[in-house]
Amino acid sequence: MKKLLSHLDWLESEAIHIMREVAGQCSNPVLLFSGGKDSLCLLRVAEKAFRPGRFPFPMMHIDTGHNYPEVINFRDKKINDLGERLIVASLEDSMKKGSIVLKSNDEPRNKYQSITLLEAIEEHDFDCCIGGARRDEEKARAKERIMSFRDEFGQWDPKNQRPELWDLYNAKVHKGENIRAFPISNWTEMDVWQYIEREKLELPNIYFAHQREIVRRDNSIVPVTNVTPVRENELVEKIMVRFRTVGDITCTAPVESDADTVEKIILETASTSISERGATRLDDQVSEASMEQRKKEGYF
């Protein structure tokens, strides 16, 4: 009897196809890996696409220097277990070179990642960056193609994109241009968690409910860290939280939760009415136009 494919099988198959198209069409691609849940799914797809051989590309993380240690430790352990190569492009290095100049020492660094990314692309001559962005994350990301073209300045024009009819992808670029490929573009947050459950993927413990000191600031829960210290007249609480998405400490907020297993997170995700990034990414609480402008300048 012919086995019926589940929706996860179809999504995985599409992602594997896209990953292999990148490997077949591009001369020097790289996979962006932060240690987060979406890029972890990308690694599993890459394993199914290319194992038992080595990946035909290295991994790369754009490190702001303000990341949660649980995620960085997991990132390094995962890459070591896979035996693959990791390139860490640091905002600190860009700051030393003078290409990034902060307005103040406590200014959020997330928006400057595009500068370091473009410098790394030029340094290593990458012609494609494979990312874990999904269309359900943010409105500006929903405007991108799966093979999203960037010009010689690393910029994206939402009005100048290539058609992708019948799952045919065009990754051809001239010298200096590059493609951003999004194999899980058609996945949702729920799909990611169901895939993690099915594949029994290990995750940074920050994704699961745990006790953490926080303050409530501007309708958000902000963790108390050396990067995000307590402000005057703020009350420190210790509550159960988890992170739906992870990134730079200054822009990543947790949510109150007692979901300490993948199964509980799936149930919680099914019942929430607030989008993943809308509730937890402080830097995304801006207008669609602002995010689109950042993407035009080279942002993920």
Description:
- With 300 residues, this protein is α/β, with parallel strands linked by helices.
- It has helices at residues 7-25, 37-50, 69-82, 91-97, 113-124, 189-199, 262-271, 276-280, 288-296; strands at residues 29-32, 59-63, 86-90, 128-130, 147-150, 178-181, 210-217, 220-223, 237-242, 255-256.
- Helix 1 (7-25) crosses helix 2 (37-50).
- It is globular.
- Mean pLDDT is 89; it is low at 284-288.
Topology readout:
Layout: H1 7-25, E1 29-32, H2 37-50, E2 59-63, H3 69-82, E3 86-90, H4 91-97, H5 113-124, E4 128-130, E5 147-150, E6 178-181, H6 189-199, E7 210-217, E8 220-223, E9 237-242, E10 255-256, H7 262-271, H8 276-280, H9 288-296
Parallel strand pairs: 1-2, 1-4, 2-3, 4-6
Antiparallel strand pairs: 5-6, 7-8, 7-9, 9-10
Helix pairs in contact: 1-2, 2-6, 6-7
Second CATH tier, the architecture of the largest domain: 3-Layer(aba) Sandwich
- Which range best describes the helical content: under 10%, 10-25%, 25-40%, 40-55%, 55-70% or over 70%? 25-40%
End-to-end Cα distance, whole Å, is 43 Å
Say what oligomer this is: single chain
Number of domains: 2
CATH homologous superfamily (4th level) name of the largest domain = HUPs
- DSSP helix count? 9
Kindly identify the CATH topology of the largest domain. Answer: Rossmann fold
- Tell me the strand order in the biggest sheet: 3-2-1-4-6-5
SS strand fraction: 15-25%
Radius of gyration: 19 Å
Shape: globular
Could you name the CATH class of the largest domain? Answer: Alpha Beta
| Structural class based on helices, strands and sheet pairing | alpha/beta
